[in-house]
Amino acid sequence: MAGSRASVRAPSRTPPRSSPRSRRSLSDVVSGTGVVERLRAAGCVFAEEEAEMLLAAAEGPAELDLMVERRASGLPLEHVVGWAEFAGLRVEVDGGVFVPRRRTEFLIEHAVDLARPGAVCVDLCCGSGAAAAVLLDRVEGAEVYASDIEPAAVRCARRNVEPRGGRVYEGDLFAPLPAELRGRVEVLVANVPYVPTGDIGLLPPEARDHEPLVTLDGGPDGLDVLRRVAAEAPEWLAPGGRLLVETSERQAERAADVVTASGLEARVLSCEERYATVLVATPAG
After folding, report:
1. Is the pLDDT of residue 18 over 90?
2. What is the DSSP track for the chain?
3. Residue 20 has pLDDT above 60, yes or no
């Protein structure tokens, strides 16, 4: 639905290779215990693909059965297997951490295109640190900082970001970032929560029941966190720096008005294939 950071997600990752003997024994379990049927009965739209992912991730029949049970109970597939593929990277995703969406790849692709070699980049509301990890992977010499208010997300992001050379901070939006970054940030990515509070109950159960509310709820109109980011962004952005924010098609016009009110010039980009809408803003003048 429009305005939602959650949707039915097709598995988009390449399963790790397993040994032929292990694969044969687990394949027997899949066919003998009806894994696909169990997943389908639980409402998993992409049951065959998910069965393949679980088959590849499980160490043996007992673990496979447990993983299928957890997935059938409504746990996000990424929480069951412990990782997600995002923009070609394998990103660790712990239970209780926001799962990176395929639509957000549209945002990070533009962020990478805008970042020069050595660019100073910030990833606010970083969740698992997926966006920060891609910036470090794709932008030569990038200086990348990330923050999140959720302790579980920060622990997860540190494993994805810091081995690649970035830094992750725990706190609310800009508050925990080093003060010396003010006026130096060239690419500011902020995948803020933008689901209106009244729409939270309409989200798929795997999102509303297993991802932190703070990562989904954007306030009465879905734009509360964006307002806070836009209000502070001008003092953190370098001259010519860019703020990139994911939003929804129905919110795009109002989101643009929000950043314009904070002294930024905004343009809206969209990708129909991924149902993605991104706002790109830069300091006026």
Report:
1. no
2. -TT-S-------SPPPP--HHHHHHHHHHHHHHTHHHHHHHTT-TTHHHHHHHHHHH-SSHHHHHHHHHHHHTT--HHHHHTEEEETTEEEE--TTSPPPPTTHHHHHHHHHHHPPTT-EEEEES-TTTHHHHHHHHHSTT-EEEEEES-HHHHHHHHHHHGGGT-EEEESSTTTTS-GGGTTTEEEEEE----B-GGGGGGS-HHHHTTS-GGGTB--TTS-HHHHHHHHHHHHHEEEEEEEEEEE-TTTHHHHHHHHHHTTEEEEEEEETTTTEEEEEEEE--
3. no
